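We give the entry.
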Amino acid sequence: MAQHAVELILTRQLASGLSVPIVLFGPTGDVLFYNDPAEVLLGLRFQETGPLQAAEADRRIRLTGERGGEIPRAERPSAIALSQHRPAHSRLWMTAADGARREVEVTAFPLLGQAGGLLGAAVMFWERP
């Protein structure tokens, strides 16, 4: 992440030390980083994948409603945080790269630079009991 803004680098450092699963997105929706707890729910190891383009992330992780219908990208909390620069929360179903289907709560919030420009979004999520 050397070419990224210091705010993104610091957010990655913070995410690395937290027990809640966190995915960091760049301003175009590409996955820049996900922490160890996120690896468990995503069925992917960051050391093996590294950053993922949005299309590749969509191919590996499927987000659906309760009845299995795919959630359009624009309606996902991460996309709302990126496009509308506001926090968003949702309950959805995630089919991970390893095939496990889980009901998850998702909270996304935009990451803004000191001048107010969009740097990306942080997405926290956890499996519902």
Remarks:
- The longest strand covers residues 101-112.
